[in-house]
Amino acid sequence: MSLLQVRNLRVEFPTRRGTLVALDDVSFDIAPGEVLGVVGESGAGKSMTGAAIIGLLEPPGRIAGGEILLEGRRIDNLPYERMRRIRGREIGAIFQDPLTTLNPLYTVGRQLVETMLTHLPIGPAEARERAIGWLEMVGIPAARERIDSYPHEFSGGMRQRVVIALALCAEPKLIVADEPTTALDVSIQAQVIALLKRLAREKGTAMMLVTHDMGVIAETADRVAVMYAGRIAEIGPVREVVKRANHPYSQGLMASIPPLDRRVERLAQIEGAMPRLSAIPKGCAYNPRCPRVFDRCRRERPDLMPAGATLAACWLYAPASGEGHAP
Amino acid sequence: MRPMIETQDLVRHFDVSRPLIQRLLAREGRRTLRAVDGVSFDIPKGSTLSLVGESGCGKSTVARLVVGLYAPTRGRVLFDGQDLGTARADRRQRSRMQMIFQDPYASLNPRWRVEDIIAEPIRAFGLVEGRAAQRERVGALLTQVGLSALDGRKYPHEFSGGQRQRISIARALSSNPEFLVCDEPTSALDVSVQAQILNLMKELQARLGLTYLFISHNLAVVRQVSDRVGVMYLGRLVELAPAETLFTTPRHPYTRALMEAIPDLEMTGRTRIPVGGEVPSPISPPSGCAFHPRCPLANARCRAEAPAMRPAGEAQVACHAVEEGRSAA
Questions:
Q1: Residue that wins the pLDDT comparison between B285 and B226
Q2: CA distance B257 to chain A (A)
Q3: Residue ranges of E strands in chain B
Q4: Contacts of A271 in chain B (CB under 8 A)
Q5: Residues 179 through 198 of chain A touching chain B, CB cutoff 8 Å
Q6: How far is the C-alpha of A3 from the C-alpha of A21, rounded, in Å?
Q7: CA distance A261 to chain B (A)
Q8: What phi and psi, each to the nearest 5 degrees, are found at residue B107?
């Protein structure tokens, strides 16, 4: 059974000028030990999906439909206190900026120990030993000496390691990591990715990895969901989506990434920009920018349907539609 | 032909000492951050030099030194053969250089209409006389960067990030500059929009014969736009080479480590061996070669003696191991 199931998730933001739909009909599963990458451009809804799962949507945003199940139990409608227990114990979160996750007034050791004491049936001495173990595990040199340091005494890369240790120390089954390496330099990013991969493998932890960096996804994820304007445009195995994307948006996104191994005279570009939430076009949200748009795309909104080895929300793959010119 | 820009042993230090009383109480001296510590390069007219490196390597400080936003602590910058200080004092010379910044949200005044933003350099340098002529020029600039002449009436908040960066470019082009300093012009943009801006910058260079100093931390972007590339580490250039040479045969161990660290889309399944450690503090840089604590090839000489830039093939490299032939490759 899937560890996490997201079913038809809908998130709305009531505003003075009407309700904005930030996420619409988002569904996916994550299996134990699996890394699901979520990519998309700013405003596509990828961070919002992560926030909804860990129950930390910024008000006035709210879940307006669908359900989120962790090991078959609904977690989207729990009272705040119950959700707080699940967060940390069963779902760990890693955010982009390590400084906002760590409490500047407590030593990193105290933060690790308290997290474990809250969630695990162990005593303070055992928790401290485990805290040292976690710091060693995430690659902090001289962990025994540094455990009593404050967050500001660590560099950016080391702080992000502490955040990872903090997310993992209660041994959650699922980690939601939102741009965990974006604030880091590339050499530190490589270290952190290697660490996350190793931990997912060794501990069997499932992970939802939200990032705009396809390179990070290609190296880390098992499956990828490509999001556009609050919906999943395509979802499938990482190799398929990166190498043989089916949705025209995923194709455009992949093609516009500048290659490192050669110089191209002109990069492929997608014309225009993603629509604002207040002005999502009728039909397929991508239709005004899509090079393969046809009539039906402007009228009807496509749901995910089988396309090659992935699922794509695109009328090109509609079974036996008279209009589609499926490849 | 004279290079557009030449820097000679450029140095910029910042005083980051604590206030006097605290210094006296703690019995400590002044502290100096060596942001740029002896950087020399030139940029031929019509070409692009990129500077790459991780945060704190000094690349943005070099950008600001080259357009005169900072004065150098030592060394000098020549703009078209003329000392930059002298050139900056002359309005006509000053209008020949412009800068594009990273954040298109912060670099445009939200209270001004786009046409006024773009016309500001025209007015400041007195380039076009008369309102109608100015408006016509602004319209032409907007069209040149792929926007509509009618967009001039709007305010910055009505545009997306990519469109705002186009507006920044139009403003930079409004004084007919020959030299543009671009400090991370696409790092705040989404990848599909980044491609639009990079294509636009290349088109404009081909059409107008612009010279670019391009600052970026993204090696893949740098490969697409550069004629030559300089790799910086802790305030110094460690390697300077034609772009193709640098990417096909990186010589400095740091350049290689940077390339090794970039996650790629090839999914070869290879296990990377990321370079350990982090960039040291530029307030107390390591002795000798600043990269030696992280370098797999470091030996006693590297710890004692800072390497100078020496020719290696088409490149210049500051590395004892490369000079002595200790680096296998």
A1: B226
A2: 8
A3: 5-15, 32-43, 48-52, 74-79, 82-83, 97-100, 179-183, 211-216, 228-233, 236-242, 310-312, 315-317
A4: 196
A5: 185-191, 193-194
A6: 27
A7: 8
A8: -95, 0
Strands (E), B109-155: none
A88 versus A295: which is more confidently predicted?
A295
Tens digits of per-residue pLDDT, B251-260?
999 999 988 8
Enter the ipTM: 0.83
From the CA of B91, how many Å to the nearest CA of chain A?
A: 36
Nearest to B274 among A191, A242, A273 (CB): A191
Class of domain A4-221: alpha beta
Query: What order of strands is seen across the sheet that includes strand A174-178?
Result: A91-94, A174-178, A206-210, A35-39, A223-228, A231-237, A310-312, A305-307
Nearest CB neighbour to A189, from listed B163, B196, B261: B261
Residue to mutate among B54, B205, B229, B265, with most A CBs inside 10 A, is B265
Distances from the Cα of B298 to the Cα of A151, A305, B307, B329, angstroms: 31, 55, 12, 16
Looking at residue A155, its pLDDT comes to 79
pLDDT score of A324: 47
pTM reported for the whole predicted model: 0.86
pLDDT of residue B12: 95
CA dist A193 and A220 (Å) reads: 7
- Confirm if B209 and A271 have CB atoms less than 8 A apart: no
Question: Residue ranges per domain, chain A?
Answer: 4-221, 231-259+267-317
Contact A54, A91 (CB under 8 A): yes
